[in-house]
Give the backbone structure.
Amino acid sequence: MARRWAALLVAVGLVAAALGLAAPAQAGTRQLKVATYNIYLGADLEPLVLAQTPQELVARAGIAYDQMVATDFPSRARAISRLLRNERPEVIGLQEVALWKKGPLGGSLHTTYDFLDILLRELRRAGLHYRAAAVDTTGSTTLPISATEQASFTDRDAILVQDGLPVTNAQSHLYAAKAVFTTPFGVTFTARRGWSAVDVVLKGKPARVRVATTHLQPGVPVVRNAQAQELYAALAQSPYPVTALGDFNALPTEAPGPYGTFTAGGYDDAWRTTHGPGGGFTAVQDPDLRNLPSKLSSRIDYVFYQPAHLSAASAHLIGDKVRDRTPTGLWPSDHAGLAVGLRLE
C-alpha cells in the first residue's frame, strides 16, 4: 500500500509539473518582500506658514491639532494592520510616523499620540510581530494651540522588520539640504528630512540586502532633488544589493528629479517593471481623509531596486480601495502603500 501511495504521489507531481503547477521558486532563488507606506501625520500643516499674525498662527495650530485627533490614527492603524496582514512584508518603510504631545502653556508636555507605538500594537493584535529596526527623527516643533495649551509635533521615518529576521548596520541620517519657511510676521520654520537603512539577512541564506527608506521634501524641488542626490550617493557605498523605498514627492516625469536620479543611476522602478508606466497612483486624499471618490491621482511613492542583483516579482497597492477605509469612513492614510516582492538573483 505504501509503495502504491508513493507511486501515486510521484505521478501527481509529474502531472503538476507538466501543467505548470509546480512551485515557481527555484532552489537558488532568494526572496524578500518589502512595503512602503506614508501613514500620514494626521493634519495639514501647510497653513501654519501662511499665518499673517501670531494670533492666527495659534488658531491654525489649534485647528491642525484638532484635525489630527479627528483623523483618528488608532482606527487607521487597525486598518493599516489589516492591509499589511494580507501582504506580510518582511520589511516596511514608513513615513510621517508622527509623535504628538500636549500640555499646559509654559508647562511640561505629555505624549498623546505616538504613531509608532500605536501601529506596532495594532500589528500585534493582527497577529504580526515587527520591531522598529531604525528610526530617523527629522525634527520637532512646539507651538501654542490656544490661550492655555501648547502642543508639539515630531516627524519620523521608520523601518519595521519582522521579528526573527536578522538585520545589521541600522543607520539613520539627516540630509544636509533643508527647506526654510518664514511666516509673513517673521517666525521661521526649518524643515529637515532624513533617511534610514538596515542590512537584512535573508532567511536561511548567506545573503544580505540593504533596505533604505526616506521621505523627501515636498514643495521645494531644488531641496528635494538635492536630498535625492545625497541618498543616492550614500547608498552607492553599499557592499550589498540595495532597494530604496519611500515617498519621494516627485512624479516619474519630473526631470531632473529623484526618479531620474535613481533610474538613470542604475535602479529600476518596481511598479513600472511589473505593471508598465500607467497606474500605481499613491497620492493624495483630502487632509480630513473623508473624500469620496478616491483622489489618488499621482505616483510619488516608489520601490527602487538594483536590477544587476534584484528583480521585481510583484507589486501591489494597498489602502487605495473604498473597502480599505475605517468603519467611520476614513481612508487609512492620505497615501496608498506599495508592497513589492523582490528576488535576489
